[in-house]
Amino acid sequence: RTAKQNRALHTYLALLAEKLSEGGYTVQQVLAQGVDREWDMEAAKSLLWKPIQKVVIGKDSTADANTTEYTKVYEILNRFMAEKFGVSIPWPVKDEGKR
Predict the structure, then answer these.
(1) pLDDT of residue 96
(2) Dist CA 99 CA 44 (whole Å)
(3) pTM above 0.85, yes or no
């Protein structure tokens, strides 16, 4: 982002925080409402993959997982998504298309 965008972002966020405080809204009240947003790779990674990885293999970073550990995490996440939402994605295999 540009320096101008950075300044604008900080100004907006400061004004937003001020209005929320003036309105008597706490952080907890605002966050409890949730915000609708579309899924992207980063959201799927941070909200779905990483929490499962932490429990299953005890590692925070995906860079620290080995090949067999990835399989364990994938199988749990894919099974959950299939059962709860009807979404099942095969593990990508080299040369089967790029995303």
Answers:
(1) 57
(2) 15
(3) no
